[in-house]
C-alpha cells in the first residue's frame, strides 16, 4: 500500500494506530532516526458552561500525579501528518522512533500538550515556505517529565517536571518532531520547572500563549499606570494578557472583549470593563486606551480605540498603522520569571471546559479549536 493510500484510508475522527509494518510507520522511523479545596469555577455561560481557572488554594501536589520514570523505548505513539490539509491528514502511528537527544536537549516524557492556532495553520500549509520537512509530528506546548539529558544540560535532571514551547521560533523552521507524542526532545533553554501548584494539563496550556502575551506587552512598552484594551479577552492569549497587564505590568485599567457567555470570565481574570462585542462596537466607545492588544485580527478597528500616541499590537490579520505585528520567540527564562506569579495564584491558566481531550481525540480537538469558539486553551491530556 502506498503512503497516500494509507493516509486516505484512515478516518479523521477517533483514529486507531497504524500497524507497525505500514508504509507510514516505516517512513517515520527512517525520517526521525536520521534527523481544587476544588477547582474554582467561573461561569462563562450561566448554568451551562464553565471555564476552569485554578486558584492557589486548589493546588495539586506534583507528587500526586508523578510519572514513573522507566527505561526509554525505541519506538512510541505519535500523531503525524505526511501532507498538508485538514484534520483528516492527522494519523496516529504506534511505531515512530523516539527522537535522539542532542547535547543541549532533554528528552521529555510528555504528559500533556496544548493546541494553538499556529498548529492548525502550520498543518494547513500556510507556512510551508519556512516549515520543516514533512512528515511532521505537530505540537508546540508541552508539560512532562525529563527522562534523559544531553551532555551539556546543567539545570535539569532525570525526574524533573518541566513545561515549555518546544519551538524557539514559531514559524521559522519549527521542529519536525513536536509535542503530540509520547516523547519529545527539547532544548534546555526553552524549558522551565513546572509550577508546583499546577497539574500537567494546566501547565501545558501556558507556554506559547503566556510567552506571546508577555512579549507583546513588552514590545508595546507597557508600564504601570497605563490602560489597555484586549481584543478576544477570552482566548488563549487574551486571558493571559488581561492577567499579566494587571498583575505583572501594573495596568491602571484593563478592558477586554468577548461574547456574552464569557463576560463574567473576563471580570474574574481582572478586567475592569468587559465589553460584549455582540452588542456594542468597542471602537465607538468614548473611552480610549494607551494600548490595544489585538489577539483576534481586527487591527483596522483597534487603531480607532487607541489614544493619540498610543500603540496597537496585532497577532493576526492585516496590520493598520500605527499597529505592528510580531512573532514570539520562545524562551524558558520568561516562564521562570512568571512562575512566581503562577505559583502564588496571581496569574491562572484557563483550560477550555470542553477538555482536556484525550490523546485519541486529537482530530476532534483540532476541529473544535478551528471553530474559534474555544475559551482559554484546548489541552490534550493524558498522553499515554
UniProtKB/TrEMBL annotation:
Stored InterPro entries: ADH-like_N, AOR-like, ER, GroES-like_sf, NAD(P)-bd_dom_sf, Quin_OxRdtase/zeta-crystal_CS
Pfam families named among the record's database cross-references: ADH_N, ADH_zinc_N_2
Keyword field contains NAD: yes
Swiss-Prot/TrEMBL keywords: NAD, Oxidoreductase
Protein name as catalogued: Enoyl reductase (ER) domain-containing protein
Keyword Flavoprotein carried by entry: no
Species in which this protein is naturally found: Stylosanthes scabra
UniProt record similarity statement: Belongs to the zinc-containing alcohol dehydrogenase family. Quinone oxidoreductase subfamily.
Any coiled-coil regions, as ranges: none
Record domain Enoyl reductase (ER): where: 85-380
